[in-house]
C-alpha cells in the first residue's frame, strides 16, 4: 500500500472511532454511519439502515448490485438492518467463505483448520448462522464455481482473507456488483499474543489490498470507473498502556486504539494527497452517499468534502 497505492490515493491520517471497539459492532457502525451499540458477539443485525439499504432503496437497484464478503461467520447479519421501512429484502447478499468451506468439507475439516478458525478474541464463540448469507447450493449458480473447484482452491491458500479475496474476484467477474464490501480479519490474530503472526498478517493484508486494486483495473466493468476505500475498523492498544498489552488487544479505549487512517483511490480521487484533519469513521457512509447519489438519512456522520 505504501509503495504502490498511496501515491495514487488521497490519504487521511486521523480517522477516529468513538464507538464500541469490537469488530462486528464497529464494522456495523462503518456500514450504517451510526455508532451502533449492539452486543459485539450477538447474531443480530445493525439497528440502523446500512449503506446497502440506502443505495438499493434510493436508486431502485436489484439485490445483485450489493454484496458483502466476510471472513468471520459472526458477520452474517451485516448485510441488512431490521429498521422499519428498510431491513429485510433491501440489504446486501452476504458470502461467508469459511461457512461455505465448512459445509463443503462435510465435517472432514482437519485439512482446513487454518482457514476455519472463526474468532481470535473469543475462541469459544460460535455464532448462529441464518442471516441471509449465501448457502453452499447457491455457490455454483452465483459464482459459477463448483464445490470441487472451491475446495481445490482452498487447499492452495494460507489464510481466510486469501480465500475471501478469491471469492470477491469471482463475484466481480460473475455479478459485477456496484457496491462490494470486503472485510478482512487475519490481522486479529494479534489476540494470540504472537507478534510474528501479527506481522505476517499485516504483510498479507497489505499484499491483498494491492491485489484487489489490480483486480479492479483488470476487470472491464470496473477499470477506470471504480473508487476503492481502505480503512481499519479501529486501532490497537498503545504499547505503553499496561492494561492493553500493546498490539495484542483493543480494549482500553485509548487514543491509539481509536485512531486509524483511510486510503481512497480511483475514479474522481485526487492522487498524492495527504489530509491530517480529524474525521470520524461514521463519515464513510455519508461520503459514499454523496459520491453515489443516495441519501443516508439516518447517518450521523458528515460527507468528507475533500473527496467530493
Outline the structure in words:
- This protein has about 300 residues and is an alpha/beta fold.
- The strands form two sheets. Strands 1, 5, 6, 7 and 8 form a five-stranded mixed β-sheet that branches.
- It is built from ten helices and eight strands.
- The chain starts with 8 loop residues before the first strand and ends in a 16-residue tail after the last helix.
- The model has no long low-confidence stretch (mean pLDDT about 90).
- The protein has helices spanning about 25-30, 50-60, 95-105, 115, 135-145, 145-155, 160-175, 195-220, 255-260, 285-290; strands at about 10-15, 65-70, 95, 180, 225-230, 260-265, 275, 280.
- Helix content is about 30%, strand content about 10%.
Please count the helical segments.
Answer: 10
**Overall pLDDT:** 91
- Helix % is 25-40%
Q: So what's the oligomer here?
A: single chain
Note the gap between the termini.
23 Å
What's the alpha carbon Rg, rounded to whole Å? 18 Å
Q: Shape from CA axes? A: globular
Percent of residues in β-strands? 5-15%
Helix and strand pattern: EHHEEHHHHHEHEHEEEH
Structural class: alpha/beta
| Number of separate strands | 8
Largest sheet: 5 strands, mixed
Model regions low in confidence, pLDDT < 50 over at least 5 residues? none
What key attributes describe this structure?
308 residues, alpha/beta, 5-stranded mixed β-sheet, 3-stranded parallel β-sheet, 10 helices, 32% helix
Amino acid at each position: 500500500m505504501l509503495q504502490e497505492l498511496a501515491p495514487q490515493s488521497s490519504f487521511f491520517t486521523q480517522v477516529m472511532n468513538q464507538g464500541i471497539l469490537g469488530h462486528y459492532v464497529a464494522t456495523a457502525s462503518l456500514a450504517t454511519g451510526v455508532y451502533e451499540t449492539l452486543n459485539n458477539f450477538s447474531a443480530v443485525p445493525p439497528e440502523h439502515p446500512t449503506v446497502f439499504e440506502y443505495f438499493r432503496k434510493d436508486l431502485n437497484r436489484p439485490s445483485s448490485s450489493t454484496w458483502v464478503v466476510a471472513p468471520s461467520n459472526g458477520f452474517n447479519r451485516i448485510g441488512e438492518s431490521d429498521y422499519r421501512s428498510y431491513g429485510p429484502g433491501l440489504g446486501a447478499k452476504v458470502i461467508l467463505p469459511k461457512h461455505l468451506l465448512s459445509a463443503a468439507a462435510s465435517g472432514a475439516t482437519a485439512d482446513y483448520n487454518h482457514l476455519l478458525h472463526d474468532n481470535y478474541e473469543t475462541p469459544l464463540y460460535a455464532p448462529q448462522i441464518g442471516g441471509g448469507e449465501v448457502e453452499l447450493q447457491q455457490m455454483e449458480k452465483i459464482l459459477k464455481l463448483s464445490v470441487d473447484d472451491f475446495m481445490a482452491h482452498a487447499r492452495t491458500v494460507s489464510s481466510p482473507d486469501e480465500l475471501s479475496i478469491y471469492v470477491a474476484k469471482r463475484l466481480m467477474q460473475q455479478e459485477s456488483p456496484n457496491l462490494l464490501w470486503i472485510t478482512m480479519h487475519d490481522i486479529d490474530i494479534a489476540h494470540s499474543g504472537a507478534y510474528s503472526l501479527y506481522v505476517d498478517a499485516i504483510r498479507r493484508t497489505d499484499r491483498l489490498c494491492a491485489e484487489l486494486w489490480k483486480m479492479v483495473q483488470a476487470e472491464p466493468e470496473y477499470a477506470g470507473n471504480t473508487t476503492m476505500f481502505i480503512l481499519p475498523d479501529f486501532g490497537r492498544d498503545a504499547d505503553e498502556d499496561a492494561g492493553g498489552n500493546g498490539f495484542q488487544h483493543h480494549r482500553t479505549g485509548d487514543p491509539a486504539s481509536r485512531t486509524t487512517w483511510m486510503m481512497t483511490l480511483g475514479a474522481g480521487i485526487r492522487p498524492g494527497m495527504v489530509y491530517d484533519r480529524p474525521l470520524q469513521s461514521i463519515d464513510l457512509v455519508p461520503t459514499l452517499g454523496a459520491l453515489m447519489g443516495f441519501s443516508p438519512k439516518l447517518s450521523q456522520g458528515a460527507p468528507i468534502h475533500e473527496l467530493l
